[in-house]
User: Fold these one by one.
Assistant:
Number 1:
Amino acid sequence: MSHAATVFLFTFGVFLGMLLFLEIGRRIGIRRLQDDSGDAAEGIGAVDGAVFAVLGLLIAFTFSGATARFDTRRQLIVEETNDIGTAYLRLDLLPADSQPALREAFRSYLDARIETYRSFPDIAAVRKWFGAANELQRQIWRQAVDAVRIDGALPSAPMLLLPALNAMIDITTTRALATQMHPPRVVFVMLFGLALGASLLAGYGMTGSKIRSRFHMLGFAFVMATAIFVILDLEYPRLGLIRVDAFDQALVDLRESMNRDVPGTEPK
């Protein structure tokens, strides 16, 4: 089952659970009104307000955090594109006979990086391409270190090329760790628990009328479930409906630009 389908089914379960707790709360409220006087409801509003305030803050913080992490992952794609492009351009500082092998290694490396993220959610394929990219990193580094020492390399080559390669290598670790950055699970457990608890209190507070307001019950549950769905989808932008895949085009465009350095090869 896909991640999007899993998240949808989970949030649909939360939606049904909230409807159930709304009804349970309403029935508890009706029984209490039958047994107690009207004064028994005094002060309950303050408790309800506190619970809903905590729920609102938790949704706001988790949504804000998920959006920030989503934007960070998109920005990291741009940074990696710039790092690879900069390092590739600085190969011009090397002797002419050292450049073709390194440029070919760069093209293979960029292919591996593109395939790494295209392979989601196939984790085995992701690890395969990630390992291939790491091996090409080591190969490129060794070749570059040897090339800057050859007669004919510009004196500035070590100072300009090697730091650019280092940045290109470092960004891969940053991107890999960014995919694993999520709130602790206890935050989501607390969010779901508060959503159900707030539903119980909301249902309890709807006992002023004998007629059940299905519109408000459905609306409350739908809005809360939708917010939870969007938060979960934003947290996994390679698996859900909200994705960062469009930004991968920057790497694809860079790869196509590298084809111009190959005689007789046109960009796809």
Number 2:
Amino acid sequence: MVNKTGRKLLNVEKMLPIVLTLAILGSWEALSDLRIISPLFYPSSSTILVTLWQLLVSGKLWTNLAITLNRLGTGLVLGMIPGVVLGFLMGWSRKLRVVIDPFIAALHPIPKTAIFPLVLILLGIGESSKVFTIAIATFFPVLINSMAGVRQINPVYFEVANNYGARVINTFTRVILPGSMPMVLVGVRIAFNNTLMITIALELLAARTGLGVLIWYAWETLRTQELYATLIVIAIIGILANYLLQKLTQAIVPWSIHVLQEENNPS
């Protein structure tokens, strides 16, 4: 009986976001049709969905989406690899952490869009400057979470490894990697969300193609239905990415899936 009740509650919880979304869309549609809100700035939900379909069919959305995802993916990889490596080293070595941590604390809070002009001076106005800034936005959350993942490992495990004469590579593969991986994946999730925002912001500032450019051109020409349609696509990217990261966590570290769940539901 308890199991059936629990399953019913779980099904209700899963349905709530869908019901809430439909209610918002229905209310938006009614308010726009009745001119209670301006159709120019708040077009009806049906108009937005039709526009989204038209952008998909025309290929305009696919082209800009591919460019944005290419920038995002390249920056993620370039920022994630050094972030994980340096995070592991700082978590493992107190001396290295004492030396580098003050620089991380000073540089991390600086808005990455604020340093973009400096990157433009160094790398020019091409793709490299955008990808480099995206990589920086990825680097810091991945590094901090990787370092925290190593530091939260019980020191007993390191002592046991030393007592049995484990080599450095064995300590890394048997202690550090499995023990810190849940926190690393949380860092990747945070980095992805930050990096997606940075990517769109950079495209708004200095790009000719991408989802951010679609948003800006739509606003300049008051085609607000295209603006909202593009925002829906960005939201879907975020939902799919977080879902895939949850599944990846379940596959890689099933014993610590609660770490990501607590990150998703801090309350």
Number 3:
Amino acid sequence: MSFVVVYDANVLYRAPLRDLLLRLAGTRQFQARWTDRILDEAFENLARNRPDLDRTRLLRTRRLICEAVPDCLITGREPLAAGLTLPDVDDCHVLAAAIRAGAQVIVTFNLDDFPANALEPFGVEAQHPDEFVLNVIDLDPGAVVNVCRDQRAALQKPPQTLLEFLDTLEG
């Protein structure tokens, strides 16, 4: 598998989208990767914004995320981050992770923080999750349909229609 993507913290924050992206990674159309720092950011924000969520369950979710995708954690990117320039210096670690992993795509909502001119020298592109999912549909429409069907079926209270299910994925 040569197509590698890095999921930014903001796409791992909301459970429905996180679940979809992890399930898509399970189709083996691409290799999804991230770092402990990316997970720290996602789960620290989740704990801060949702104090009603049990910390033990959040830690369990974090562990399960890593178990769901083999070889997902990127290490050794720290030295690269210091030499990178992005509009938000706090995002340099994400680009460094992408470079270290040999990723072609960073999946993020923050496209302005990853301008094409800063990413192009490294062969990396930032994609909004909508664009990324559409690209995965182009690779294997049937696999994406099966993933969505399975995700909807796994819900305790599944939406009545597929359109209602797709609405849950919107941020």
